[in-house]
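Format notes (please read before filing issues)

Several people have asked whether sequences and structure tokens are stored in separate files. They are not. Every record keeps both together, in the order shown below: the sequence lines, then the token lines. Line labels are part of the format and must not be stripped during preprocessing.
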Amino acid sequence: MRIVNLTNDTKQDILKSLLKRSPSQYTEYEKTVADILSDVRERGDDAVFELTNRFDKWDINSSNVRVTKAEIEQAYEQVDPEFIEILKEAAENIRVFHEKQLRDSWFYSKKDGSILGQKIVPIDSVGCYAPGGKAYYPSSVLMNIVPAKVAGVERIALATPAVNGIVQPVTLVAADIAGVDEIYKIGGAQAVGAFAYGTESIKKVDKITGPGNIFVALAKKAVFGQVGIDSIAGPSEILVLADETANPRYVAADLLSQAEHDELASAILITTSLDFANKVSKEVDSFTAVLERKEIIQKSLDNYGYILVADNIDDAIEAANEIASEHVEIMTADSARVMTKIRNAGAIFIGPYSSEPLGDYFAGPNHILPTNGTAKFFSPLNVDDFTKKTSIISYSEEGLKAVHDKIEYFAKKECLTAHANSIAVRFENK
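Then the structure lines:
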């Protein structure tokens, strides 16, 4: 891996490079996505089926678009029983973690009898997306559906591409374990369109979540406002903060765990030791030579892999906060203290035995995380994403009487006399 000194210039160059991977930069695909969504909105099932036939090469229709109970039962027979048990345990870990995020509605009363509060209810319906075909991730199926289930969403649908009309068995098993209600054999922008607008076979949802390719990401961006979305996911990324006390072999292995995702993935180490940087670089080369996805890894590292050598840990932390990585690992002598200074990260992994894949698969916190610097203002997928909050206002006559003149004055200052009148009319004969 390339080793460079951390300066303000190198930091800014890296940030510019990383931001080029954002889905917002792929404007050449936006017209294609817009055309697909328009077609689905206007022609419903016919458009979805024609597009699926064109892209996925199988004869889909209204009788086979939805996965049947029999297909789910058959999927269980095709998946290794040991893996099924692991999926169940992972789902339970995810459920327990997300149950901690549940919030209650709240209310308080004033001396005049007025009541104010916030009512929290689950979203009625959610459409989750899961990649299919060559790339399929049962872990993401669990991470989408389990929090929605915990939140109390009444209808949870899953869309995932099929190969020759068959969905990956492990995807079906994971979805069933998580508690899905409906599964559809569609993918790409047309799946997002079906969820956003509804078709004859697929009922509209209120929110769409889950990762996908560039077409899925741009489609989610385009339908936002018609429905809610979780975020617009970009390529995977990891940033490791480490000093000379860390194990260079562990650090190298963790960097490559994200570099293998695709050629746009980013793997960055920031360290305060040049000697440690050289050790990690050698371990990276050693691992890359024998790993199955070495071609993808090498291109990822060539494009977006860096080892940055900082003058001190405070400079390293500042750079980490500016980069705002999806995953941040901390392997320093004082990891807990460093953690308290990290403000911008999707997820933070502390210590040598908290490797990033632990969070991907098993620990319980959600692995659907903000990317491309959006950790500065976005959070991981969580129970709040599947609920909505409504303000409750119940004023007594006494309560409104005490403040009505102030409200009227405020409204008139904004030249909204009808606003003022709606308050004043209640006291015109009093």
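For reference, the curators noted about this record: DSSP finds 17 helices and 14 strands in the chain. The longest strand covers residues 115-122.
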